[in-house]
Each structure stands twice: as C-alpha cells, then as structure tokens.
Design brief:
single chain; about 425 residues; alpha+beta; 4-stranded antiparallel sheet; 11 helices; 12 strands; about 50% helix
C-alpha cells in the first residue's frame, strides 16, 4: 500500500492511498464468497451458486462492498503510517475500480493544528484587587437571608399597589390589537420593583387598585429575545387580584439558629466567611479568564473548521434551550467566537500539560467521581462505567492543574 499526504493548510490534509492489485483481488473474492453464503437462487443449493453466476448478477453490488471494505481496512493504517491525528470524519473520494488492478482513493481530512507554544509562563494580566469583605456587604447579605426566609401575608387596610409589594394578578399583552402568543398569565405572583418583567411593566402596576382592570403600554427593548416584540410598543391589560406584604423574621438568635449557628454573632461570622469564599472564587475566575485570553493571544493557531462548526452549534443549541425566544446572526456570531476560544484553550492546555509532564492520577479521578455521586445522587458504579463522564473529569482535572501552573508563573496586578 502506498500513501501520500498533501498539506492543504495547517489543519487540512489530502491523503492519497493506493492499494495493490493482490489486496483488491482478495477483497473482491471475499465479497463473492460471502455472497455465495447469503444468496438464494432458484435451481441452486444454498452456498453452491457458481461464482460466475454471482459475478453476472451482483457485479456492481460486489464492487461497492469491496470498495467499502478496502477503505475501512486501509484508512486507519494510512493515517497511522503518516502520524496524522484527524479531528473529524474524512471526505472519501474513490477512484476507478477494477478487480484486477490497483485501487486508489483520496481522503480529505482535518487534523489537530500544530501548537507552537511561544509563551505561557510569566503571562501578565490585570484583574484588579481581590478586595476584602466590608461590614456593609455583611449587612446586605443578612438582609437578603431575611428576605429569603420571609413570609407573605395579605396586605390589610389598603387597596393600591406600591413598590415592594407582592401582587397576584392576571394579565395579557396585545400587539396591533391582537393577543400576543404566550403573553397571558393568571394568578401570577410578582414582586413589584424586582425587575422581573420587561422595563416599564412593574412601574405601571404602582397605584393600581385591587379588583380593577387597568391598561398600560410598554415598549420592549431593541435587544429583547423575542424578535417579534423587540422595539415594539405592547398594550397590557392587567387586573390586580390581591396585594401581599412580606413579613421578615427578626434578626435574633432564633433566626440564627434556624440557619444552623448559635447566635447573631456567629451568623455574622459565617456570612463574612461565605462572602470571602465567594470573592476568592470570583477573583480566581477573573484571573483564569484573563490568563486564558492572554495565552490565546500569545500563541495564535488555526482552528479546524469542522470542530469550530460542531462546537458553535452545541453552544447555540444550549443557548436556545436556556434562553428561549428567537435568535439572530449576532447570537450565532457570539457562539462561533466562544467556540473558537474553547477549542484554542483546549489545544493549548493539552500541549502545556504534555510539555510540563502534568498528569492526572486514577485516585484523583476516583475522588472526583465520588464527589459527583454524592452531589448529584448518581450511582457511583454507573459513573465509573461511563467513558464520557470519566474522560470529562480527567480533562477537567488536567486543565485545572495547568491553570494553577499558569497562575503560579504569572504576573497578576
């Protein structure tokens, strides 16, 4: 077998494979032997149909099967012989076929891009100071907890809505006099002033009276996910059915005990520690993202188009599931940009790990699988037997180690 490779670009190769006549004949003969075992023809016993009869009746089918088998058997050997690492399925173009002659086919394939690491140690990034936790932040977090554990009760002695109220309402939106699809709701519980609804909606509820229907107009933002409503003025008809007030728990030792600590002093300490942990995580995240941006900028590479399209499509589909609404070209462009960053990051971190001899031990993978099992309730044995999960955990741990190295060697300000 002869194999030649033509480099079309940094990530594209054209493989030309020539298979000798003896191998071609052997493949064709095997196809006919298999057909003889399978084919049933009137006048012949099973397995006894003459080869010449089969050649006359099944010649084209036999050639197709032989071509398929030859490519299937020789392609892996061809890429191995040329030390190629494909990242996608090849585009195969078979040449002319004759059972007595050599057979040649070409394969267009994309391969992993060459990673020429120029700089990854001593990267300089600016992310700002980590900052400590202030007393004000502690107070605000405790207030948030009080709100979280508050209870709602019907407001007494008044019938008009004010900011901060919780209202039970029915509403529906209209565009050009017609009801808007999926804009109707009944017994919808909303905190007025929370920013949950489109800008202008909650403000229009302030002053409305319980039991009376009101109308108001709201202009949707230009960047609203629903393209049919973006920038349009919508008429809403709403009826407030009930006003509720949130009664917050007293900030005392009993409240602290409900949150798992002994007293208010211990609660403040716990809250401060949690805020410090969050700030540390946020700081590390900002450093990590800045380092990866600088790493990509310092080490340019070409991304295989098939990988880029596949990754971008996955991000795009996830966005549609999570965000809903219509999409436009800007969303797709953002997905492509994110996909390119993900792919470059993966290749660069993989190469750094190889150069630095960074590895992940089996016990580290096992420990992470146990954590996942405990957190999600999934059976540990099933996780161990899921190759995708195990490989994902291994990659995550490896990347984390490489990023730790980058952070240790970086100049951060």
């Amino acid at each position: 077998m002869r194999v030649r490779v033509e480099e079309l670009s940094a990530t594209k190769r054209k493989l030309k494979v020539q298979i000798p006549p003896s191998t071609v004949k052997e493949a064709v003969d095997e196809v006919y032997r298999d057909l003889r075992r399978r084919v049933k023809l009137k006048g012949f016993r099973p397995g006894k149909v003459p080869i010449e009869v089969l050649k006359r009746l099944y010649r084209e089918q036999a050639h197709r099967e032989a071509i398929s088998q030859l490519i299937e058997k020789t392609y892996p050997e061809a890429i191995s012989r040329k030390s190629l690492e494909p990242v996608s399925a090849p585009q195969i173009e078979p040449g002319d076929f004759s059972p007595e002659k050599s057979f040649t086919y070409t394969a267009l394939l994309e391969v992993k891009p060459p990673v020429d690491l120029k700089r990854y140690k001593g990267l300089e990034v600016k992310v700002g100071k980590k900052g400590g936790v202030t007393d004000k932040e502690v107070r605000e977090e405790i207030e948030r907890l009080r709100n979280l554990y508050g209870r709602l009760k019907t407001a007494e002695g008044r019938k008009r809505v004010k900011k901060g109220d919780w209202v039970l309402l029915d509403f529906e939106g209209f565009l050009d006099g017609r009801p808007i699809k999926d804009s109707r709701a009944e017994n919808y519980l909303l905190e007025v002033g929370s920013g949950t609804m489109v800008p202008g909606f909650e403000e229009a509820l302030i002053g409305m009276e319980v039991g009376k229907e009101g109308e108001f107009r709201v202009t949707f933002p230009q960047d609203h996910p629903r393209r049919d409503l973006a920038g349009r003025e919508v008429l809403f008809r709403a009826k407030v059915k009930e006003i509720r007030e949130k009664i917050l728990p007293e900030l005392d030792d009993e409240f602290a005990k409900d949150l798992g600590v002994t007293d208010v002093k211990a609660l403040r300490k716990k809250v401060r520690e949690e805020l410090e942990r969050r700030k540390e995580e946020d700081y590390r995240r900002r450093v990590r993202e800045a380092l990866l941006d600088e790493l990509i900028s310092s080490n340019p590479m070409e991304v295989p188009s098939s990988l880029l399209q596949g990754r971008a499509q996955a991000i795009y589909e996830r966005w549609k599931r999570e965000e809903g609404g219509d999409t436009d070209e800007r969303v797709w462009e953002a997905c492509v940009k994110a996909a390119e960053r993900d792919i470059k990051t993966a290749f660069l971190l993989e190469e750094i790990a190889r150069r630095e001899g960074i590895e992940v031990k089996e016990e580290e993978v096992e420990e992470r699988l146990k954590e996942i099992s405990k957190r999600t309730g999934r059976d540990l044995r099933l996780l161990r037997n899921d190759d995708r999960v195990v490989e994902g955990v291994r990659t995550e741990l490896l990347n984390s180690k490489v990023v730790d190295l980058l952070m240790e060697e970086a100049h951060i300000s």
